[in-house]
Amino acid sequence: MTKAEDRILVQEHLAHAAEPKQLSADEKTWLESRIKAVLKEKDAVLVAHYYTDPDIQRLAEETGGCVADSLEMARFGNQHPASTVVVAGVRFMGETAKILNPEKRILMPTLEATCSLDVGCPPDEFEAFCNEHSDRTVVVYANTSAAVKARADWVVTSSCAQAIIEDLDARGEKILWAPDKHLGHYVQKTTGADMLLWDGSCIVHEEFKYRGLEDLKALYPEAAVLVHPESPDAVVEMADVVGSTSQLIHAVQTLPNQEFIVATDNGIFYKMQQLAPNKTLIEAPTAGDGATCRSCAQCPWMAMNGLKNLLHVLEHGDQEVLVGPDTREAALKPLRRMLDFTSGMNLKAAGNA
Ligand code: SF4
Q1: Residues whose CB falls within 8 Å of the CB of residue 25, separated by 6 or more in sequence, listed in order
Q2: Atom of ligand 1 at shortest range from CA of 90
Q3: What pLDDT score was predicted for residue 182?
Q4: Ligand 1 center to residue 26 CA distance, Å?
Q5: Which of 92, 99, 160, 180 is the most buried (most CB within 10 A)?
Q6: N-term to C-term CA, the chain
Q7: Looking at ligand 1, which atom is closest to the CA of residue 300?
Q8: CB 117 near ligand 1, within 6 Å
């Protein structure tokens, strides 16, 4: 096992140990009404990722916040007038919000919620990798620490990666890509760009399996297969649509199919079902048999966000995201490049295989 795999396993274990406990209906009702009141009192807005618990997504919508992918979360937090932004997601999302909004207080239900892509790309090792290949333009996925972003020329999300790499390739630039090798491989294949890939992966998407998907497709031959490009190549090859979370949600709304096999974190089903209530959604098969979160298409770090720790942080403000000024200044440049590049792009239409 490599050092990176070791670190990821430790973090994953800690995440499972810290998962919020099931709440009774009365507890939920009380917590939700209290959170709504404290959000107002503290001039705070809740921004949640599609992979968080449906209770949190609903609360974000009901209180004037937003539920979105990481690119839209960053944009929303940037434009909203609230002085405090509560980011329900994983740490790199909180850091991105802080980099874009240094004057705002950025809170998270827990700062321990990380991401295997972030853990698998330590800043010192990444710096050395970049220095070895200094002739390449450094493009990093949003799922990285602020320190890794600070070393990059560009930040991308899965909604805009293809368009940005195409543009860089057209300008003759050679790319150093980190950290997700599957997304990198997919973009490399679709754009033909010269890309050197860091060896990182998402532990959730990596579990989707081609064989199981083939069997499921035989059971539901009319179903469209929707795949997030963090999944392995053989799974991506079977997709009718490959795209970011927003692009997959858009596909459920707009494709004529009645059934969809979905290969991404199952937290996304809340929004898909809300926007397309008559469609049938089927979870793509994973490697496990139900005993662990790795086998149920659910990110253990996203699952650390619960109603109790959300209320706690709103009342106590103790899980505040801080980014040092030098790191912030350096990380802001590649982030701004991405936001400027994507402003006005119709990202929902992009990414279809
Ligand atoms: S689902 Fe994968 S990429 Fe997303 S936060 Fe979890 S580990 Fe990271």
Answers
A1: none
A2: 5
A3: 96
A4: 31
A5: 180
A6: 34
A7: 6
A8: yes
